[in-house]
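Propose amino acids for all 113 sites.
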């Protein structure tokens, strides 16, 4: 769900909240690099209007990290491509649900308000 939403609406939604962010020119760039570019422009300079988006994007940063072999937080790449008992743990499932619910709410608000 996170992948589909980020692929379909992620860049446009992120641009609406973070217009000064650095966006890679290649539309096929992974979500982790897009999120990193966005956060780089707002470290220590967030406005209250963007607080919920900043918190969500900060939490999602490690979700899309591809070059890790061991999982310390929920990571979509490891869960999808290296499924094991280490990647499917209760604490990761809870984080995934919280991130997904928050992302759906913010993107829904972006699309329909």
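Proposal:
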């Amino acid at each position: 769900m996170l992948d589909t939403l980020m692929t379909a609406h992620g860049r446009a939604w992120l641009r609406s909240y973070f217009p000064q962010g650095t966006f890679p020119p290649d539309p096929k760039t992974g979500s982790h690099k897009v999120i990193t570019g966005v956060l780089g422009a707002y470290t220590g300079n967030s406005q209250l209007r963007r607080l919920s988006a900043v918190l969500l994007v900060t939490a999602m940063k490690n979700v899309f990290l591809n070059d890790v072999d061991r999982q310390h937080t929920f990571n979509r790449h490891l869960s999808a491509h290296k499924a094991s008992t280490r990647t499917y743990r209760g604490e990761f499932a809870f984080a995934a649900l919280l991130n997904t619910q928050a992302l759906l709410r913010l993107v829904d608000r972006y699309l329909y308000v």
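Helices lie at 2-17, 31-42, 51-60, 76-81, 90-112. The CA atoms of residues 53 and 107 lie 10 Å apart.
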